[in-house]
Every structure is written in C-alpha cells, then in structure tokens.
Amino acid sequence: MIWTVKSPATKKVIGTLDETPLERAEDLYDNANKAFLTWSGLSISERVHFLQKLRLSIVEQLDDIVKVIHDSTGKVAVEALTTEVMTVVDSISHIEKRAAAALKTRKVKTPITFIGKSSYIEYKPRGTVLVISPWNFPFQLSMIPIVEALVAGNAVILKPSEITPMVGVLIEQLFEQAGFPAGLLQVAHGGKELGAALVKGKPDFIHFTGSVRTGKIIQAEAAKQLIPTLLELGGKDPMIVCADANMERAVQGAIWGAFTNSGQVCMSVERVYVDKSIYQKFVDRLVQETQALKQGIAADSDIGSMTFPQQTAIIKAHVKDALEKGAELIAGDHPDQWKDGQMFIEPMILTKVDHGMAIMQEETFGPVLPVMPFETEEEAIALANDTRFGLNASVWTADLDRGKRIVSRLISGNAVINDVIITVANPYLPYGGAKEGGIGAYHGDVGMQNFCVQTAVMVDKG
Ligand code: ADP
C-alpha cells in the first residue's frame, strides 16, 4: 500500500512510501539472520569502517536530513540539527573507542580455591535486534540504538514510528549510500500491527522507545518467547531549584527543558519545585522569558509545532483538570481557546498546583510547566520522588555537595546538577529509566554490553 505523508505543521504533503506488508516479517528475519553470520565475524574496527562512512554521508547531507526531520515533526530546524543529527554524529565519532572499551574481553579474579584456573568474561553479539522507535526524536532514537547494536556485531530491523515515516525512509537511504552489507539494516514501514508482527517474529533482542502503555504490551509479548528487552519509556521529570541557585541559568534551564520540541521529550522538565524564598521572583522571570519565545516554523523560531495531533487532547485534559482544581494559568492560552486541529500550542506556565492534579502525576508531553514552592530540602525530595516515573531529574544549587546529596536520594535513572536533559547527549553515560521510566540502559559501557550475550569462562590449563 502506498502511504502519503503530510507535515504536521503545514499540512502539506512531504512524501510517499510503500508500507511493508505484515507477511514480510519472516523474510526480514531471514535476511537479517543471514547478514548477521558475516557481520558478527568482523572485528570492531572493520564494523566501524562502515559506520564512519555512514557518518560522512550524514555530514555531507546535513541540510537535507534536517529538512526531512523538520518537515516530519514540525520541530524547528535548529533543534533537528542540534538535538537529533549532531547527537548521532557525535555518538558515531566516539563509537570505536567506546565499543573497544566496553566489549573487550575482561579478565576477572579466580578464587584461590580454584587453584590453577583463570577466568574471563567475553561479550558476543546477540543476533538480530529489533529497534522500535517513536516520533518525537525519530532520527536520534532510531540511529543511536542501531549504531550501538551494529558495532556490537548484530543485524538490525528498524520499525520507525508511523507518525514520522519519512525519517525511516531517510535512514534506509543513508545505510544504502554508506554501502552496508545487504540485510544488515532493514527498515519495516508500518504501524503497531507491523510492530506486533515483528515482536512475534522472534528477534534476539528488542530495543523499544515509546509510551509506557506500549512498553508494557511489548514486554508481555516478549516474555512469552523470553526475548530480552530494553525499554525506554516515559518521564515526569522534576527540577528542584534551591535558594542559592543561579536564578538566570535556572530560568533558562526550565524554559529549554520544558519547551524544547514543544515539550514532546521523555526527559523534558515536567515539574518545577522552587525554594519558597525565591519562588515569586523565579516565577516572574519564567513568565517574562516564556512570553518572549517565538513560535513558528521560520528559521529563527524558538518553538515549533506539536507532532502528534492526539497529544494536544492529553495536554488539554491535564491543564483543564489543574484549572478545575484551583491552578492558575499565568502564561499561554487557555485550552478552551485552542482551535480544532491547532498544532502550535503556546507554552504555558501553571502555578497553585498540587499532587492531586494530573499535571503533577501523569506524563503531559507538551509545552506546559507547572511550578510549585517548597520549604525544606526534605520536602523537595519527597515531592520529586512522588511519581510512578524516574527517568531524569535536575537539581539547581551553588553548593555542589548539596546538589550531589539531593541527587543521591532521587529515584531516577539519570540526573543533572545545574543543567537539564544533557545526560542523554553524553555517549559515555548509560541512559535509561527507573520505575516506569523503563528497563535497562543503552550508551556507556553497560549500554553497549546490553546488545551482547555475556559468556563467563573459566579455564583450566588441563
Ligand atoms: P509514542 O510514539 O506516542 O510514544 P507508542 O508507544 O504507541 O507511542 O509508539 C512507539 C512505537 O511503538 C511506534 O513505532 C509504534 O508503531 C510502535 N508500536 C505501537 N504499538 C505496538 C505494539 N503493540 N507492538 C509493537 N510495536 C508497537
């Protein structure tokens, strides 16, 4: 079936593609399993040779790639460049060193009772990795798991989001241009039925990024076949601003953390807790800066459009629930003023919020920031931890010991002191969530090892 794709921001047609029939799932696995036999026999530096060609292709076609991402998502072009394309380029730049360090065979101690024996751990590729990716960062969240899975020696099948399918077509072309062996990276274009068929098709590992709801469905299905999974799910990330924080930096951090990609970021700042003594000043500055943001698709815009129309209904429900329970909207349009199908949602600030409101408990995934005062460090930590999620968190203070003390008590897969989100951009740090934030991590040594089977070996000289 031919699929016609429109831009969420302009509603103009941006491309067409062929949907992959469900019956193709078996062929895809056959091709991948064949490609795996040769690829897994190459050394890391031989694999990196192909990846560096891919990196070069990306750099040579930066403008075209940025355009496809921008047209597909409605995010502003500079965001597509910095948070998606450059993050991928950076990740590939470091890939050889990272893979060599993470995947090298490790000698470990052997207890004296096993006299004469030696021990080591070896990391081997798993086979065919199924990567299922979402629409909010369709390039980055497809490419980074693909690159890590490939360098570890696996073959990959990518099922990109049906909301941004032209990015999947782009990825397919980039791998073709870089001359990767046939069948090593295949892209399956389709929706959740195709995703489900691919999960049932017996991958050796599943790397999923998306909603908690779908993550649970995939985990349940994978459990039936005992397929190992890595799940990158949702967030309700807190930001704690202490009285001694650099106010201007914290305000800018909150703005960027909450409104980049119109808040459609699993690690976006979704709640701010501010020390009571600086609360009013912080809120006033936040409102000024929020109202100064420029929204649109022009090159100098700060914020683009929403990508997924249904998301606006969730944002609306959360904001209205908060307003009905006593919150105050002090920046942005009231949801009742939004037009049907409106994709540019003005950034909003909410005050007088509490944890009885959905806006403080559920993932909103939109350009809305609730702000709440706190009196003691203890209270701030308790509020930050009062959530089903645990993906990222940030603490803002001039006292780094205090920052580290607070971070050590937050239940969160990632945390930042005096900045937001950035842990994901450091390929040496593992990235993954606690609680409903997800299971497992990629990036870093541990992340790279997750794409491998670990064999523990003990040797007797005989
Ligand atoms: P979002 O993209 O809003 O986070 P989802 O979690 O539903 O939403 O989608 C993420 C990815 O998971 C998409 O590529 C989607 O097609 C895929 N997907 C959705 N449902 C399933 C399913 N039951 N099995 C496999 N993949 C699925």
UniProtKB/TrEMBL annotation:
<keyword id="KW-0560">Oxidoreductase</keyword>
<dbReference type="InterPro" id="IPR016162">
    <property type="entry name" value="Ald_DH_N"/>
</dbReference>
<feature type="active site">
    <location>
        <position position="232"/>
    </location>
</feature>
<comment type="similarity">
    <text>Belongs to the aldehyde dehydrogenase family.</text>
</comment>
<dbReference type="InterPro" id="IPR016161">
    <property type="entry name" value="Ald_DH/histidinol_DH"/>
</dbReference>
<feature type="active site">
    <location>
        <position position="266"/>
    </location>
</feature>
<dbReference type="GO" id="GO:0006081">
    <property type="term" value="P:aldehyde metabolic process"/>
</dbReference>
<dbReference type="Pfam" id="PF00171">
    <property type="entry name" value="Aldedh"/>
</dbReference>
<dbReference type="GO" id="GO:0016620">
    <property type="term" value="F:oxidoreductase activity, acting on the aldehyde or oxo group of donors, NAD or NADP as acceptor"/>
</dbReference>
<dbReference type="InterPro" id="IPR016163">
    <property type="entry name" value="Ald_DH_C"/>
</dbReference>
<dbReference type="InterPro" id="IPR015590">
    <property type="entry name" value="Aldehyde_DH_dom"/>
</dbReference>
<protein>
    <recommendedName>
        <fullName>Aldehyde dehydrogenase</fullName>
    </recommendedName>
</protein>
<dbReference type="InterPro" id="IPR012394">
    <property type="entry name" value="Aldehyde_DH_NAD(P)"/>
</dbReference>
<dbReference type="InterPro" id="IPR029510">
    <property type="entry name" value="Ald_DH_CS_GLU"/>
</dbReference>
<feature type="domain" description="Aldehyde dehydrogenase">
    <location>
        <begin position="5"/>
        <end position="455"/>
    </location>
</feature>
